[in-house]
């Protein structure tokens, strides 16, 4: 699928809340390699700066609120148990921003990973409820942190499902996904459909454990 309709996003700076975790660092690394200025946010400035220093000169670390204010687009990659409280504390800083939620509400027991119920329907819908003045998009749920961080992996062959109610915002996030070599951003529906996308991560974890893989998704015939 060619995507000539996608906007030019090469000049956008990208902030990552929870950027000290593997998923956040992996996305930060790939966007930095694509030429973006990347800001890693954390409650601890020291941890954010340490994570940034381990990645690339174009990555810098700071406190969550500062990153939320400074970045053009903000990705939320915080742990699920701190998701709502973190966003509530940053609602003012994120007003008017495109906020990309990639959080998967999952539990783990002896049988493996499973999807957790969310009162609002999904993590992305919770973000939208908390961030009433932001443009919330759901994306990047199924990208392997191991592959993102692996310097031996030049291309990540997968499709990123992008969901949201704002056409311009979802197009921008689709274009950002395409900045990662091998990846495509594919529109996956309205934000109300984010639950099953988040929950599918539990299935991918099961696949990875059975087959010793880092599985992703490809959408056929588009």
Q: Helix and strand succession? A: EHEHEHEHEEEHEHEHEH
The total beta strand count reads 10
Going by helix content, strand content and strand pairing, the class is alpha/beta
CATH class call: Alpha Beta
Helix content: 25-40%
Looking at the overall shape, the CATH architecture is 3-Layer(aba) Sandwich
Largest sheet: 8 strands, mixed
Radius of gyration: 16 Å
Number of helical stretches of at least 4 residues: 8
Q: Poorly predicted ranges (pLDDT <50, ≥5 residues)?
A: none
Separation of the first and last Cα atoms: 6 Å
In CATH terms, the superfamily is NAD(P)-binding Rossmann-like Domain
Q: Numbering strands along the chain, what is their spatial order in the largest sheet? A: 3-2-1-4-5-8-9-10
Mean pLDDT: 96
Broad shape: globular
Q: How many structural domains can be distinguished in the coordinates?
A: 1
Percent strand:
15-25%
**What fold name stands as the CATH topology?**
Rossmann fold
Task: Give a quick set of tags describing it.
222 residues; alpha/beta; Rossmann fold; eight-stranded mixed sheet; two-stranded antiparallel sheet; 8 helices; 10 strands; Pyrroline-5-carboxylate reductase catalytic N-terminal domain-containing protein; oxidoreductase activity, acting on NAD(P)H
């Amino acid at each position: 699928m060619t995507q000539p309709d996608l906007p030019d996003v090469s000049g956008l700076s990208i902030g990552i809340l929870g950027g000290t975790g593997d998923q956040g660092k992996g996305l930060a690394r790939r966007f930095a390699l694509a030429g973006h200025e990347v800001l890693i946010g954390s409650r601890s400035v020291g941890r954010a700066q340490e994570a940034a220093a381990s990645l690339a000169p174009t990555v810098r670390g700071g406190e969550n609120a500062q990153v939320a204010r400074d970045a053009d687009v903000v990705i939320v990659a915080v742990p699920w148990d701190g998701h709502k409280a973190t966003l509530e504390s940053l609602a003012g800083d994120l007003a008017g921003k495109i906020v990309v939620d990639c959080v998967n509400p999952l539990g783990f027991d002896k049988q493996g990973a499973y999807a957790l119920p969310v009162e609002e329907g999904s993590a992305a819908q919770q973000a939208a409820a908390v961030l009433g003045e932001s443009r919330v998009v759901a994306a990047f749920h199924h990208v392997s942190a191991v592959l993102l961080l692996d310097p031996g992996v030049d291309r990540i062959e997968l499709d990123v499902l992008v969901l949201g109610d704002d056409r311009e915002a979802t197009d921008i996030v689709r274009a950002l996904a395409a900045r990662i070599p091998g990846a495509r951003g594919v529109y996956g529906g309205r934000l109300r459909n984010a639950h099953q996308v988040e929950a599918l991560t539990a299935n991918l974890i099961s696949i990875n454990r059975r087959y010793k893989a880092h599985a992703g998704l490809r959408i056929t015939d588009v």
